[in-house]
Predict the structure.
Amino acid sequence: MGRYYKGDIEGKFWFGVQSSSDADFFGKEGSPNYLSYYYDEEDLTTIEVGLKNCKNTLGKYFKEIEKFFSDLEKSKEMGYNDEMIEKALKIPNKRVKFILEWYARWILGEKIRKCVKKNKYCSFEAEL
């Protein structure tokens, strides 16, 4: 069972890594029961600042974690675990969750940004 967001963008929050309210990071707060989000072109600067913050926080690991998931998708693997990430990024286990949290946040922010650029707005609800 997972927690999903749906609307103009859709996806599943990363289990054990990503909060349902993660989109709050990009400048809007969700409402109770479901977190409802609405972004438009006026929010693009805030969204892009959030994306830059995600990349800066990940530092050198941004390209490495992006490559890890790209390679995973190409290999048709069904999933991953912390040990695989530890080995690929050459990091201790205690850093894995932190890196996944910021990368998952970047992916969400990138979906929001692309949606706003394409449609001039982006609206979705996130399950709690």
